[in-house]
Amino acid sequence: MMANETAAKSTKSSPTPAVEPESKLKILALHGYRQNGDGFKSKLGSFRKFIGKHAELVFVTAPHIAPPLPDSEAGTEPDPAQRSWWFNKDDGTFKGTNKNGPAIGFEDSLKLVEKVWKQEQCCGLLGFSQGACFVGLLCDLSARGMTSIKPEFAVLSSGFRSGSLVHLNCYETKVQIPSLHIYGEADEIIPKEMSMALADTFTDPQILTHPGGHFLPAQASQKQTYVEFFRERLQFHLEAQEIENATAANSILVDDSGPAGNGVHDDDDDDDDSD
Question: Acidic residues bias: where?
């Protein structure tokens, strides 16, 4: 009898420990046209300090090298440090205000960010200029189940709607996740009206304006907005993780009870304990 009891106990798997919740948000950061991940990280030094208690940024570099500037000397080689997520002009360049053009290389960039998103286990998106345009597209694609990226929130600085023909149907339904939209009143590269139009594709967008031009501001006057936004996002993220862990723990208890409720289950069930 004692041997049978011992055998029964040995076949019962020990409860899988709950996964410790992440203490910070992990956010995929997408740079602008003719930028790269390292340069974008350098530019956001003050911003990263503001949000460092609540969030960590994961920087990725676009896969496409931008061509030399139009006023470059003949024979100038492309600068590998100047990157683009896609090109929306037939000459293989990009301009935010261009309409009804192609989206050359977009699918390659989509595959890249999907890979990094999964590897880094990110939960939010941040983008600047072309990167913010990309973030807007990713949010829409996610809502329609057309990408593996599932952002909980998004931050878009100097963003705009893509004018590429293949993207024109991406803004028919409003995105239902929390979003912070940042733009400069004096932005001459992406006029504020374009950023406002992108913000209008989100439900209840939070707007932060500044008197400057084409950059993501990180001054004392913006700090409170950033801190409060990311603190709230972290709170919701941790609460969701707690619910997920509790659900997983309850599932394990149900599995451990066995089909007859005697704490014994078949060998085939052991693999399920790791889910």
Answer: 266-275
